[in-house]
Specification:
350 residues, alpha/beta, 2 domains, six-stranded mixed sheet, 33% helix, 25% strand
Length: 350
């Protein structure tokens, strides 16, 4: 189902009543939606967030990011990297210590209410009203954003169909599975037709089947012209969904680009992991590095990682050099996790 133009004037919206124009002026999202169309929809400059305490914590340290309209942008990193804090500032839930963030040209600190009207937010945890049905959660969200009863009902029915929730319309949300509840949260978040949707760890806790269904829903939003920014620590999710990815660790952006650009930055197509015994062999790494066809050799958690483009004739030579110290060999294609390991020296999930 196509929703058509995201910001078509709606004569039933509260924004078109005289009283609401007195309250909102011309700053309702329907009236200002065409402004800033040529700019990045998200602009982050010098963002810093420090949490005070006996030992201050710098959750985000001077990051710069831009997100273009219509793209699906991923913020990839381990737990505690600063992803949720960054999203928290973008969505006006957290005040920055320094720096600026604008959403569709609106400063989130100076004009938070106006910025919030431009965005939909799905936080990491379920925030649905457990006393309401699926339909009521969406309907009352529309009412909160100024839709009349008739328009809110129509919009709720549209979203129930879009997310294949019509059969569950009268079900209390407390009875839903994790995957269904997440779909309701996304439907509710876009009910007021925002320009951008923020998803904080949308796949966390979902089974593989529910995760794939969620990915399909996210792709559908992109086809309808909604910009999506998601945080994740699942490299497969970032690789499968995102047009561009920024890898963040300890509050700093390490690298950003398309998934393919990031994987090419490793300089090799395959990674061989040699799992070695406890005995240290100082000659192993230099001997492996000297082999023709090997791009790089780096120490790993329980052995070494070897970066190559092709395995042709290399594996027997590598095994021979490793000798009796070798316990196991694993071979993998270059992934976004490989990029993270090469940048930080540790696994994404450590």
């Amino acid at each position: 189902m196509q929703l058509g133009v995201l910001f078509a004037p709606d004569p039933d919206c509260i924004c078109y009543t005289r009283k609401s124009r007195e309250l909102f002026g011309q700053n309702c999202m329907h009236h200002t939606a065409t402004q800033q169309t040529q700019q990045d929809i998200v602009s982050i400059r010098g963002l810093t967030k420090r949490y005070a305490g006996k030992v201050p914590v710098d959750a985000v340290r001077g990051i710069d990011l831009s997100v273009e309209r219509g793209e699906l942008f991923g913020l990839l990193g381990p737990n505690g990297a600063g992803k949720s804090t960054t999203i928290g500032v973008c969505t006006t839930r957290t005040l920055p210590t320094a720096g600026t963030v604008t959403i569709a040209g609106l400063d989130v600190v100076r004009t938070p209410a106006m910025a919030r009207r431009r965005m939909g937010v799905v936080p990491q945890y379920n925030t649905l009203d457990r006393q309401c049905t699926v339909w009521e959660n969406i309907y009352f969200h529309c009412r909160y954003f100024g839709y009349t009863s008739t328009t809110a009902n129509r919009r709720a029915q549209e979203l129930l169909e879009m997310f294949r929730l019509s059969e569950r319309a009268k079900s209390p949300v407390r009875e839903l599975s994790g995957g269904l509840a997440q779909r309701v949260q996304i439907a509710r978040a876009i009910a007021h037709q925002p320009e951008i949707l923020f998803l904080d760890e949308p796949s966390a806790g979902l089974d593989p089947q529910s995760r794939l269904a969620l990915w399909d829903s996210i792709r559908q939003l992109i086809r309808q012209g909604i910009t999506v920014v998601l945080t994740t620590h699942y490299m497969e999710e970032a690789d499968a969904l995102c047009n561009r990815v920024a890898i963040i660790d300890h509050g700093v952006i390490l690298i950003s680009g398309t998934p393919e650009e990031l994987k090419r930055s490793v300089g090799a197509q395959k990674v061989i992991h040699l799992h070695l015994g406890s005995e240290n062999n100082p000659q192993l790494q230099p001997r492996l590095t000297a082999l023709a066809g090997i791009k790089a050799v780096e120490p790993g958690k329980d052995g070494v990682r070897i970066f190559v483009d092709s395995l042709d004739g290399l594996l027997p030579k590598i095994i021979e050099i490793a000798g009796p110290h070798l316990k196991d060999v694993s071979i993998a294609e270059t992934t976004l996790e490989t990029v993270f390991i090469k940048l930080t020296g540790r696994d994404l999930r450590e």
